[in-house]
Each structure stands twice: as C-alpha cells, then as structure tokens.
Amino acid sequence: MLRPALSIGLVSATVLLGGMALTGSASAEPGAAPAQSQAARYPADSLRALGDRVGLRIGTAVNTDELGSNADYTRITAEQFSSVTPENVMKWQLVEPTRGTYDWAAADRLVAFAKKNKQLVRGHTLVWHSQLPTWLSSDGYTTTLSNDELKALLKKHIQDQVKHFKGDIWQWDVVNEAFDDDGQPRQTIWYKAWGGLGYIADAFRWAHEADPKALLFYNDYNLEFTGVKSNAVYDLVRSLKAQRVPIDGVGFQGHLDTQYGFPDLQNNLQRFADLGLKVAETEVDVRTFTQAPPNENTPTNPLAGYAQESYWSRALKACLAVRECISFTPWGFGDTYSWIPGWFDNPQEGAALLYDGNLQPKSQYYVLQQDLALAAGAPHRSGPGAGHN
Ligand code: 9MR
C-alpha cells in the first residue's frame, strides 16, 4: 500500500457573498448568553445554512485555544458550522492528566459555545491508543497496569465522561482507530487486556448505559478506500450489529492526499449504511506537497489547487449522495492550525484546509459552498440533527 500509515503518536473573513441575506447577525462570544436564550446568527450563504437545506450538518474540529481568544477564528466557527468536534480537549490525556482528577474546563467551554450557537457536538474520543495520560500508558501499546485494572479504568473513564456530557453530545466517537492499515487489530493496551476485540462491544455498551440518546460511532481513517482495512472494520461493525451492540454509526475520517487516487468513498459510505448504520465524514482534509517552512501552506505544484478542489468536492458529494451520511466535518478550517505540516514534514505537506493561514477562504471553500447551494435534489437526512440548525 502506497499510502503512509497514519499511525498516531503522542502529542506532543468575512465570507459573505455579495450582500446575501443574513438569518441574523453574528455574535460569537462564548458563554455570553444562556444557552438557547437567543437565536444563533449566521449568514444564509454559510456552509451551515446551505447544508441545513438537506439536513446535513457541516462541522469543524475546534482548537479551543483559539476559540474566544481569536476573534476571526471564533466568528468563523460560529457562522460557518452547525456541528463542532473538540480537536483535542475531550481526549483522555487532556481530561484526566492526573489519575483520579478530571479537568473538563476546556471541553465544557466548547459545549457552552455550541449551545449558544445552535451547534451540535461530536464527542471525540473515548477509546484510543493515542493521547493517553502517561500514568496509563506512554505509547498506547505498553503499560505497567494489570489487565483487571485496565478494564476497570476503561469502564470508569467511559461512564464518567459520557455522564459528564450527558444530553450535550450528538455523536460520540466511542472507539477510534482500532485497526492497523493491514486490516489487523491494532495491538493496543485495550486489545491486550481483553485478549481480543471484546473491549469494543463493552465500550459501546458502557457508553450507551451512560447516555442512551447519544449516537455512538466507530471512527477510523482509510475506510474511504475499499481494501483490507475497510473490509475488516465492515466485518467488525456487522458483527456488532448482529450481537445487538448499541452502535449507531461509522465515522470516515477522510484524511485525503492529492498524491493518491481519490477513494471510492461513496460506495464505502453506502455499504456501511446498508448495514443499518449512520455514516459521517468526520475529519476531512486534503493535503498536498508544499514548500518548506515558513511557506508550508503554499503548494509546490501550482496545479495542486485544482486537485484539492476536486477532492473536497467529491468528498462532500459522496456524503450528499448517501442519505445516511449525517455530517461532513473538516478537521479544522485554517491551514495555520492544521496538524498536517507538523506531522508530514519530510517531504513537507499541508495546505489541507478550506481557509488559508490568514483565515481567508480558499477556492476549496467556494467549491463546497457552490456544491451545497446546488444540492437541493440530494436526499434529505433524517433523525436527530437533521432539523433546522
Ligand atoms: O489534530 C490532532 C492533533 O492536534 C494532535 O496532536 C494529534 C495527536 O495524535 O491528533 C490530531 O487529531 C487526530 C484525531 O484525534 C484522530 N484521527 C487523526 C487526527 C490527526 O492526527
């Protein structure tokens, strides 16, 4: 397989077009008004307003360091998107850095912001091998804790976190990235503690007990491509459904790269949906080769932008064409805040998002705006989240 493994290590404009009508006027201060007390305000030509016409939530990953402190960032988050995903602040490393002491502050602020701006929240993520607190595991694959301790800890983590946010989360990424690129179960501390994939069913059951109304998702990358990994996840979720495990959906992360062919995404979304599941594109970005820093947001090939426009458009249209695809979420919206330049730096890649380093919309943004404006014939979504946002 030519695509590099996207294995994850530890952490380390106004866009109004030509005076179109507003559904309201913008106010993006987090926490300034009680939730629901005033209508959220956003432009009629925003991605969120256009997606609303077919019941499709357009989301973004949010960097909570910028939210509230960066006025443009905050305004765009509120105006353009009808769903938000915390890029990092609901991960275990962030919510329980010290064993037994929770810190929900940043995630709570995002949830308050979302309520104020009539956005739904994708909770990300409960069970992962990456971004674990060091007291639990420093690499996700080894730990000094016993299997029994790990089982008790995972149950407590899931139940405490899901209960803390009960009623506030639309979709939870319950389990993230449980398979390797070769379609084998990833040998994480969870896999080893259970002696197999049994932790996944337990995780969904525990999450469902804690918040029966939240939609529960399995989330992974490269599911977009038909192949051993996508097939392995397909077999897993089919078997979970057969066992009546409370799984509602599958998230296709959608970290795309112009050096690879565009995946058969629509077919893959549809075959998972045909199992009786919701599907979503949860972390979309389209990276390309770029110049060295400080120009890491500038493609080396002047034609790269055309491929990026095409990939963004096709990724969105794949979702639009599948009625069960309930949300389309880019992984952030300003190239400066993207994880990509720091991760793929030899050779350098980047320029993967809809807005440039100065938070100005790129041509990719306008392509999505036009696709949504022309999407009136696409099937309307149904279920929670498909109503007016
Ligand atoms: O964007 C996230 C970045 O800020 C973190 O440093 C990184 C740590 O692994 O995680 C990034 O988000 C990942 C997401 O949680 C799961 N899928 C892959 C994403 C990109 O690495």
Number of helices: 12
As for the number of domains, it is: 1
Strands across the major sheet, in which order? 1-2-3-4-5-6-8-9
CATH class bucket: Alpha Beta
Class based on secondary structure composition and strand pairing? alpha/beta
Number of strands: 10
Gross morphology: globular
Q: What is the CATH topology assignment?
A: TIM Barrel
Sequence of secondary-structure elements: HEHEHHEHEHHEHEEHEHEHEH
State Rg: 20 Å
Protein name: Beta-xylanase
Catalytic activity: Endohydrolysis of (1->4)-beta-D-xylosidic linkages in xylans
Pfam family, one: Glyco_hydro_10
EC number: 3.2.1.8
Task: Name some characteristics of this structure.
eight-stranded parallel beta barrel; 389 residues; alpha/beta; binds ligand 9MR; polysaccharide degradation; TIM Barrel; 12 helices
